[in-house]
Design brief:
The structure is a homodimer. Chain A is α/β, with parallel strands linked by helices. The first copy, chain A, is built from 35 helices and 31 strands. Among the domains of chain A are: about 245-340, ATP-grasp fold, B domain (D-amino Acid Aminotransferase, Chain A, domain 1, 2-Layer Sandwich); about 380-515, Phosphohistidine domain (Glucose Oxidase, domain 1), CATH 3.50.30.10; about 530-620 and about 655-870, Phosphoenolpyruvate-binding domains (TIM Barrel), CATH 3.20.20. Chain A has an eight-stranded mixed β-sheet. In chain A, strands 24-25-26-27-28-29-30-31 form an eight-stranded parallel barrel, surrounded by six helices. The longest helix of chain A is centred in the last third of the chain and has 26 residues, at about 585-610. Chain A is elongated, with a radius of gyration of 34 Å. At the A-B interface, α26, α28, α29, α31 and α32 of A face α26, α28, α29, α31 and α32 of B.
């Protein structure tokens, strides 16, 4: 039996999208539920694939099936192709399984010939209308199927109008139109060296081939590459008998959404034009009316349309985007599909559909794209105020949100200004760890250098702070304290505004609107929490981060990086004193100064977190990060510290490393300088004991040892921490419980996880560093070749943004498995940017982790992603 | 039933070393084979452990077993402890399972008391001898058991001698000796507040306890830590009835080896003293005679001794180290053990024992410590000439061998001098990649900075070149061209000599002797080759390396690093031109200049290797390694290249990386600059085709892609290489076969090896980089904390020296397994320093690799290690 290449609409249904394309399947479905759809047929996507297999030719079998089905269509409509009395006219449209712009345009009125046009005139009693349709069809066919430049037809038309002194097309007479048809056919012949085809069947086959060819035009290929759509799936072609919205005052055409696509409000939303075809609505020459006006023009049709829209939404159980035409008082549905909407609308519609009983909570949760929540979680510019703003430059949208403030060119001055109560924007060539406090107190960060993974970008995203990075048209002079863009020079204290979601930089201030989780958003988050199995924690180093994260629903802290506290201006002096110590005693002296400050940090955090768990990581970065490197700063430090410059330089020299990423950091510091780890353990335990008693809660501190690669490292440090903790407990007469765990972020730790688990109460996968070491990519340096790799197709996504499940993920799975062999109930989470990435979160869910931890502003994204992962993998 | 804590010698045997200690077990064994051994008993190592368990006390049970066995010993000897006519005297010696210096000294003549001394006098008819023995015993017992300072006894003795104007001990009369005994007992009382014990049983128990205590003295603990001997195993105590070598002219004592321990010659080798005790031989007051002289003194005893030595060697099937005593014409054996020997002796003895039928070839192969071959594989100083040399400094023994030459302070001048035919020593503060050629042409390298893993050390070991590194007492002034050591200043052209095995630096020149594999060494290597399953290849970048390796038995090249060829002075200019190119066309121009040079390199290599396989790796290091970094060199380069300094600096800046180890290198270069890979592929294929035809052999080039982490990388580059190779083959009308494989050196490659194998004809594990990434250790930086880790016991060995089997090894195993799932017969080897480490080689054998590749001078070590691995794991 031969394959079925062609389906009448009435033979298909909505489940056949991959065969009939989205448009075709939905037209079939509408017929199945008895909605008024002009009959038609669909040539399948498989026919497209076959077309290419045959060297861009329609096989005889496909051609004969098209012809057979045309005959059936003629029977259905009672019209005949090319008939001199009642000709069948059709539209031809492409329709792939996935909505895909960039492919062939629609052809209307196919079937018109010198004979059929007369038949159409007779049948409609409107000769002018028939010839107007004919000349439009010739132009469209020539343009779309044979690529005859459109302007050639337009010139001919303008010619006639000029000759007759017409201003509008409507002034053309029937005779004019007949002349134009002659001219157009001549153009067609001159361009193609063939006559304009007078057999509708031939017109149709040419149109079908054109649609298939358009599947591989440059725009379509680019689009598919961009959105990861396979090139092999092909497109279908829909051939539908014409209905005319331009057949007089009882005809019309329109588009509508079953709900408001901006707000989600449950009210049909759309517009229409009477006596018009679809292209007139799009062209924008006449202003369409809002859909409710249809109630005044044709109340019965309006009622029928509202009823139909309702049926469609009920049937598809989702907001629909509908096209319709009214022909001489009769309503026809031409298309329905799931409607595109804003995140706000998506949330409201989903929540209300649950309340209406239309969909389940699971479905509601599954309908929201987690990444789309991002736009709701950062300050935004007030839409009205934004209209008056002038964009002066565009950089990389490095960290989303909107910010307005006075520009400052050093971290110190930015901090000072913040303390005076000013809103500030930190403007730097590029940032370094010493700028952390300046970044933290500013409203936004602008850098002229660096990419999406530069220090500024990474830290800003971590802080949930607006950042525009690598804005190369801005010249930043940190000495003169100016930023120059073209002719414009801004100086310290001038206002600018940044949009971290677009990369736009504006001159002057713009009002911003703060984000909040409430209404439908809040409701949907509640439901997500009901479904998800993964806990959601946050990476928070400061009380401010912690508060923000709790507001967004974080259930604990998964990673508190204690080193960020070391950079604060008030304590960096003591930290540096510790680093340049000659011996343990000196170092311990300096650490004694730091202890009360660290304790206070932790107390503040514990107060905000209350009984929620908080994992605090011991010092991680190499010590040289805390020491200045340029001449001037060294001289200053030498004065402050009363230490000779030469000695300082020696120390800086001795701390230098070729590959700091793989150097003396993490637990390696704690082992070579145990006094640092002891100080930190003491600060954590003292803080927990004091806050537990002050607030009358039971805090169970989680102390995390970073960068463990061998079980012996954790064994030694576990002993050291326990010794310190027990001493503090004895001093304070406390029976505090505490946990000691480790980051799993080194490949060796993954493959020897069964050994390490023996000394760990919990694990937290540090997938940032694990990705660096598993791939051998330095995050600071890999930008260059990662983008090259994406271009060549070696990498599909940046493995620092979404976890590489095949490689890095395999190590994580191995580690979980080995660890659970030893401790089946061990608590295992993940911190690092992957904790906020939906695809990664689904992977972590499947891997059996207990929680993910992400930056505060990713918490809602993570909650939703975790819920979707749980539902998908039930 | 109670445990047996004490064994009579006649109850034990050689297999009980862990219970009876080495000495005790061998004494038992000698009795079993009817050799004349004075009877005795052994208190077991378990008794030692029990002693510590009891809080450093002998349990009643142990004491009573000692006493019971003493009684049996009295019966055996017919003597009685403390007897007034025929007293039993014993020696007490420690004896652990593992030979271990640093423990308790021997106590002789235990059992002497005021009564027994008279009995001894009666029995021997020599009162003076009896009292002389008594005073020696008191001193030894006081010193060894109770730590009474020896000098106190010596003073008392000297006192009597002075008073009597004696010059020698032999002048002391019996009465003098009796007085001395009184004085010694008084010293004992004054020091210990107790009387010198007059019950032999008590003396014995005190001595046994002292031996057990000495197990945990500081020296012993240090020794065990150093040699990885468990602290828990304890020592045994041997109590043996005394025989006297100092009972007149028919008595004597000696030590001997069954073969010459320096040369391995099969001839008993040793020395003896008549009328002396063991300590006299050691003390060196009298000069002992060589063992063959015994034939003149006591021919029958000599014959018996030679016979006994022969029996022992036949019985133990190994060269023995024997102690003996002759008491009044009767021979007694006091100890036998496997004799320590030089590598040369070990080889000769092993080979000759096989020829004698004493041991099998397998045993011979197993007897040689692979690492010991090292001393035979490098030039050595002529022993006679060395005697006259003056050492002026000691640095780290960074790369073994001996070298003599004129000093030069820059690579350029060293190269120039070598071209003039001078033997040179390159002296630098530290070396950098730019010094490679200077290092290569010099005889040896001396640096004043850097450790065992500094650039100089690593590269020198790779080259098999003598290097003394981090010689901090030498001040190197590269500007003035002087090296200063204390008062001595040496200038350019002065001679020095280096011993890379000891770190010694000598002033002046010393003759050197070149290594060769011949004689017994050669024979043993042949046997090793019969047993081993692993192939042995070499890492060789130059024809010189390749020749050396073949001489040492390499079967192919496992790693040829093409970048080393880039540094040669004649081509670095073209390489730099390539790097600073603005576009592909410029770069291709520069590459065109490099192509013929690279081709010539490969042709030379292929000519030397003949039909042996050679794996050539594409460019690996980041490009910035080829560009100078200091101001002066940049200015010079700018002139040479006619490129503005600012542009050069921009390029250098843009190439800079935070973590070059994880940066833009390896196949990442080949993908971003495909023209480089194309040039290299062309050079390799052209060279192979030309040499195949010139030499009429079939070369199958193996082209290796470094640093692959994703299968897509190899997929893309494989295609590129094939395309180039096929083009060359067409041009040259050749049907050359070639293989394309990859380094497995990134953790991700290991865990996705099933994917990568699809595009690889072979694998070579790059365990250096794999170790760096699996541990997260930068080899350039980790020195500091690796040594700290070894001290704390976190690392047992440096994982860069011996592969970490648990972690890195697990990834290798996984990769082998996954790769063989796809290609069961794929050829897999290992390159990197682990390829020359015996423990690592055994691991690679077990993992099922096809070959190991190591530096030329490790090839014999690898051959032997591979054979031992095969024999052990049969």
């Amino acid at each position: 039996m031969s394959k079925k290449w062609v389906y009448l609409f009435k033979e298909g249904n909505a489940s056949q999208k991959s065969l009939l394309g989205g448009k075709g399947a939905n037209l079939s479905e509408m017929i199945n539920i008895n909605l008024p759809v002009p009959p038609g047929l669909t040539v399948t996507t498989e026919a497209c694939t076959e077309f290419y297999r045959q060297g861009k030719k329609l096989s005889d079998e496909i051609i004969s099936q098209i012809e057979e089905n045309l005959t059936l269509l003629e029977e259905q409509t009672g019209k005949k192709f090319g008939d001199e009395n009642n000709p069948l006219l059709v539209s031809v449209r492409s329709g792939a399984a996935v909505s895909m712009p960039g492919m062939m345009d629609t052809i209307l009125n196919l079937g018109l010939t010198d004979i059929a046009v007369e038949g159409m005139a007779k049948k409609t009693g409107n000769t002018r209308f028939a010839y107007d349709s004919y000349r439009r069809f010739i132009q469209m066919f020539g343009d779309v199927v044979l690529s005859i430049p459109k302007y050639k037809f337009d010139h001919a038309l303008e010619n006639i109008k000029e000759k007759n002194n017409y201003k509008f097309d409507t002034e053309l007479t029937t005779e004019d139109l007949k002349t134009i048809v002659q001219r157009f056919k001549r153009i067609y012949r001159d361009e193609t060296k063939t006559e304009f085809p007078q057999e509708p069947e031939k017109q149709l086959l040419m149109a079908v081939e054109a649609v298939f060819r358009s599947w591989n035009n440059a725009r379509a290929i680019t689009y598919r590459n961009l959105y990861d759509i396979p090139h092999s799936i092909g497109t279908a072609v829909n051939v539908q008998s014409m209905v005319f919205g331009n057949m007089g005052d009882t005809s019309g055409t329109g588009v509508a959404f079953t709900r408001n696509p901006s707000t989600g409000e449950k009210k049909v939303f759309g517009e229409f034009l009477m006596n018009a075809q679809g292209e007139d609505v799009v062209a924008g020459i006449r202003t369409p009316l809002t859909i409710d006006k249809l109630n005044e023009v044709m109340p019965e049709i309006y009622a029928q349309f509202i009823e139909t829209a309702n049926i469609l939404e009920q049937h598809y159980r989702d907001m629909q985007d509908i096209e319709f035409t009214i022909e001489q008082g009769k309503l026809y549905m031409l298309q329905t599909r799931s409607g595109k909407r804003t995140t706000e609308a998506a949330l409201r519609a989903a929540v209300e559909m649950v309340e209406e009983g239309l969909i389940s909570k699971e479905e509601a949760v599954m309908r929201i794209e987690p990444k789309s929540l991002d736009q709701l979680l950062h300050p935004r510019f007030d839409a009205d105020d934004l209209k008056n703003a002038t964009a002066i430059a565009v950089g990389l949208p490095a960290s989303p949100g909107a910010a307005t403030g006075k520009i400052y060119f050093t971290a110190e001055e930015s901090v000072a200004a913040s303390l005076r109560g000013e809103a500030t924007i930190l403007v730097r060539k590029e940032t370094s760890p010493e700028d952390i406090e300046g970044m933290n107190t500013s409203k936004g960060i602008l850098t002229s250098r660096g990419g999406m993974t530069s220090h500024a970008a990474v830290v800003a995203r971590g802080m949930g702070k607006c950042c525009v990075a690598g804005c190369e048209t801005v010249y930043v002079d940190e000495i003169k304290k100016t930023m120059v863009v073209g002719d414009l020079t801004l100086t310290e204290g001038d206002y600018i505004s940044l949009d971290g979601s677009t990369g736009n930089v504006y001159q002057g201030s713009i009002k911003t609107v703060e984000p909040a989780i409430s209404g439908a958003f809040g409701k949907l988050m509640e439901w997500a929490d009901e479904f998800r199995k993964l806990g959601i924690r946050t990476n928070a180093d400061t009380p401010k981060d912690a508060s923000a994260a709790i507001k967004f629903g974080a259930e604990g802290i998964g990673l508190c990086r204690t080193e960020h506290m070391f950079f604060e201006e008030s304590r960096i002096f003591s930290v540096r004193k510790m680093i340049i110590s000659d011996n343990v005693t000196q170092r311990e002296e300096a650490l004694k100064e730091i202890l009360p400050m660290q304790k206070n940090d932790f107390k503040q955090l514990y107060k905000i977190m209350g009984p929620r768990p908080a994992t605090i990581r011991l010092l991680d970065p190499p010590l040289h990060e805390f020491i200045p490197h340029d001449e001037e700063d060294i001289i200053e430090l030498s004065k402050e510290m009363h230490v000779p410059i030469s000695k300082l330089k020696d120390i800086i020299q001795s701390l230098q490393e070729f590959n700091p990423m793989l150097g003396h950091r993490g637990c390696r510091l704690a082992i070579t300088y145990p006094e640092i780890a002891r100080m930190q353990a003491r600060a954590i335990i003292e803080a927990a004991i004091e806050v537990s008693s002050e607030e009358n809660i039971d805090i169970v501190p989680e102390i995390m040892v970073p960068l463990v690669g061998k079980k012996e490292e954790l064994e030694v440090l576990r002993e050291l921490i326990i010794e310190t903790a027990e001493k503090v407990k004895e001093e304070k007469n406390s029976d505090l419980k505490y946990l000691i765990g480790t980051m799993i972020e080194i490949p060796r730790a993954c493959v020897t996880s069964d050994e390490i688990a023996q000394y760990a109460d919990f694990y937290s996968f540090g997938t940032n560093d694990l990705t660096q070491m598993t791939f051998g990519y330095s995050r600071d340096d890999a930008g260059k070749f990662i983008s090259a790799y994406k271009e060549v197709g070696i990498l599909e996504v940046d493995p620092f943004q979404s976890i590489d499940q095949v490689g890095v993920g395999k190590l994580v799975e191995m580690s979980v498995k080995l660890g659970k062999q030893v401790k089946p109930n061990m608590h295992m989470g993940v911190c690092g940017e992957h904790g906020g990435d939906p695809a990664s979160i689904e992977f972590f869910h499947k891997t059996g982790l207990s929680y993910v931890s992400c930056s505060p502003f990713r918490v809602p994204v993570a909650r939703l992603s975790a819920a979707q992962a749980a539902i998908k993998n039930k």
